[in-house]
Amino acid sequence: MADLKYYDVILKPVVTEKSMDIMAEKKYTFLVHTDATKTQIKEAVEKMFEGTKVASVKTMNPDGKKRRRGMVVGKTAKKKKAIVQLTADSAEIEIFQGL
After folding, report:
1. H/E element holding 13?
2. Any idea what DSSP says for residue 2?
3. What is the DSSP string of 33-75?
4. Residues 84, 88, 44, CA angle at the centre, nearest 5°?
5. Tens of pLDDT, residues 12-65
6. CB proximity list for 65: less than 8 A, separation 6 or greater
7. Is 6-87 a domain of CATH 3.30.2270.10?
8. Under the phi-then-psi rule, with left for phi > 0, alpha for psi from -120 to 50, and beta for the rest, what region is 44?
9. Cα(90)–Cα(15) distance, integer angstroms
10. pLDDT at 95
């Protein structure tokens, strides 16, 4: 397992219609490092965004999709998504406020 620092765990936020709908329930979606655990994701969110308290973390680990370029068949890179549920008394995450 890789030695990940908290700033290496979260790669970028996921901005889709579905992820915007669940933000009303204080659930935020992020693309995370493929080797990151739920505990590391929780610590990273609490350290990167001041005033947040994480209640739970749910992860999805889909494989890469098959792609073709002519006769050559390959795969895209694996991704890992995390849905982070904040507690009721937690502060909001600012990067999603202007969207």
Report:
1. strand 10-13
2. -
3. -TT--HHHHHHHHHHHSTT--EEEEEEE-PPPPEEEETTEEEE
4. 35
5. 999 999 999 999 999 999 999 999 999 999 999 999 999 999 999 999 999 999
6. 75, 76
7. no
8. alpha
9. 21
10. 79
